[in-house]
Amino acid sequence: MTAQQSSTAPVGPRPDGEDQFPAGAQVFVRDEVWLVRNSVRTEHDGAKVDVVGVSDFVRDQEAVFFTGLDTIELIDPRRTKLVRDESSNFRRSRLFLEAVLRKTALPQSERRLALADSFLLDSLPYQRRPAELALSGRNLRPRLLIADVVGLGKTLEIGLTLAELIRRGRGERLLVVTPQHVLEQFQHELWTRFAIPLVRLDSVGIERIQREIPAGRNPFTYFKRVIVSIDTLKNTDQYKHHLERINWDAVVIDESHNLINRGSLRNQLAQILAPRTDALILASATPHNGDAKSFAELIGLLDPAAIRDPEHYRAEDIEHLFIRRTKISPEVREQMKGQWADRGPSQSVRCAATPTEEKIFEELAAVWLPGENGTSVSGVPLFPYTLLKSFLSSHAALKATVSARIKTLEKKDEPTATRAELAALRTLQELVEPLAEADSAKFAALVEQLKAIGVGPKSDARVVVFSERVQTLEWLRTVLPAALGFRGRAAEESTRVMHGGLSDEQQMQCVEDFGLADAPVRVLLTGDVASEGVNLHRQCHQLIHYDVPWSLIRIEQRNGRIDRYGQAHQPQFRALILTSEVEGAKDDTVVAERLLDREDQAHRALGTAEAVTGLYRAEAEEKSLIQDLLRGRTVDESLDAHRAEAEADAAMDDFLADFFGSVGDAGPGAENADPQDTEGKGAGTSAPGNAAVPRLFTSTAEFLDEALSEVFPDATTSLDLHRDTESGLLSFRPPTDLVHRLKALPLDYVREQRLRERLLVTFNRRLAEHSLKRARESSTSSWPEISLLTDLHPVVEWLTDKVLVRLGRQEALIITADVPEPTYLVQGVYSNALGRPTVVKWMGVTRGGTVEDDMVGLLHRSGVGPTMANPMRHSEPATALEAGIPDALAAAEQFLDRHRDAWDEPLRKPIDDYKARLGDWEQPTLAGERTKKSLASLADSLLTTGRPLMRVLAVLVPDPEAPAPPPPTA
Question: How far are the Cα atoms of 273, 575, 638, 663 from residue 613, in angstroms, in the given order?
Answer without folding.
Answer: 33, 22, 8, 20
